[in-house]
Amino acid sequence: MPRYAPHIPILSTFYRLEQSRYTTKNGTGFDFRRAYWLPPLPPEVVVKSERERIETELHMRALISISDHDHISIVEGCAPSVEWSIAIHGIPLHLGVYNLPPPNLSEIHAELVAQKKPGDQSRVMELLCWLNEYKGTLIVLNHPFADIGSRGVQKVKKAVFRLLKKAQGLIHALEINGYRPWKENLAVASLADALDLGLMGGGDRHGCSPNAILSLSSSQTLSEYAEEVRCYKQRAVLIMPEYFENPVARKLQSAVDFFRSCPEYCIPHRHWMDRVYFKAGEGVARPLSYYWRRIPIWVRSSTWFLQLLTTRWVWFTIRALLRSGPLQ
Predict the structure, then answer these.
(1) pLDDT tens string 287-317
(2) 43-243, CATH topology level
(3) Radius of gyration for the alpha carbons in the chain, expressed in angstroms and rounded
(4) What is the DSSP letter of 177?
(5) Which of 38, 163, 27 is nearest to 93 (CA)?
(6) Cα–Cα distance, 291 to 260 (Å, whole number)
(7) HSE-CB for 159 with a 13 A CA cutoff
(8) Disulfide engineering: 192 pairs with which of 10, 150, 197, 247, CB 3.0-4.6 Å?
């Protein structure tokens, strides 16, 4: 919200007005760090959609691993994985840790989450060494050049180079991401080549659309694929056609996916207000539906406007106007 809302016509006016009201009433601005949201689809449906897409469109066998921020995802038929958040000199970075050993999941999760608290960065290296003891586990630096914390791209790159230098041999691959610009992904691919690291495709999907960049391999299991990347620096990726559509249109589609009501399998998170959580003064996270008995009119208007944009004819016009994709 704080990154995009001030730049969206009409919505920006309501956003600033509500921020001003909140500050006047509470003496301080709204802290978005106390809020978080859940994606519209449960993990099982995400895995099913990825598998069906790969097997139906590409006629290939699917090996799938999904990860969540600092939470180990456990889905039937899918390797346990986590997106581990770390900070290098105050710059937030994300490490994808894939195919974790099931007997040690609780211990691994506890250690990784504890590292989120302020502490010695040498502990990050210790944990990386520990994770490397599991030969079937793959450690990937996700979207390396993405300025997630709005600290500046040059600061992010500096932190990335520091991490890769210090963790030499402990991080196995870099990710090129389905929602990052082509120029940035090319820079990541060049860095992987220069440092003799593997290269993996990642989707960073948060809506209903399948991943736009996939990894290719002849391996039969994720453990075999991990060995392929760790030992032989596998860099084969497949870029799907939708990646070359305009990124603004693709992100807009993800936003609309979020605000749609989900079918039966999303209970109890069928409505979007049940998927947005906020920690109030008592520190307990509750959904917006707990605080809002009725959705404010400016919020209803904004979500209606987003949904209008993706009706058949309006969406067709938007796509025609936004034809330039990431290659341009």
Answers:
(1) 988 888 788 887 887 778 777 776 777 767 7
(2) TIM Barrel (3.20.20)
(3) 21
(4) E
(5) 163
(6) 20
(7) 23
(8) 197
Of 30, 14, 167, nearest to 88 by C-alpha is: 167
More reliable by pLDDT, 123 or 306: 123
| Distance in Å from the first CA to the final CA of the chain | 27
Backbone angles phi, psi at 125, to 5 degrees: -65, -40
Distance CA 192, CA 117 (A): 30
Q: What is the mean pLDDT of residues 33-51?
A: 88
Chain segment 259-286, per-residue pLDDT in tens: 877 766 666 677 888 889 988 777 789 9
197, 161 contact by CB (below 8 A): no
Backbone angles phi, psi at 2, to 5 degrees: -65, -20
Domain with CATH 3.20.20.140 in the chain: 43-243
Beta bridge partners of 85: 94
Which residues, 6+ apart, have CB-to-CB distance to 18 below 8 Å?
296, 298
Backbone angles phi, psi at 71, to 5 degrees: -140, 125
How many residues are listed for the chain in this entry?
Answer: 328
Q: Which residue has the higher pLDDT, 40 or 119?
A: 40
| Residue pair 177/142 in contact by the 8 Å Cβ criterion | yes
Q: How many CB atoms lie within 10 A of CB 82?
A: 22
Taking the C-alpha atoms of residue 43 and residue 249, their distance in angstroms, rounded to an integer, is 24
Residue with token string 């690291």: 197
Q: Which helix (H) or strand (E) holds 26?
A: helix 11-26
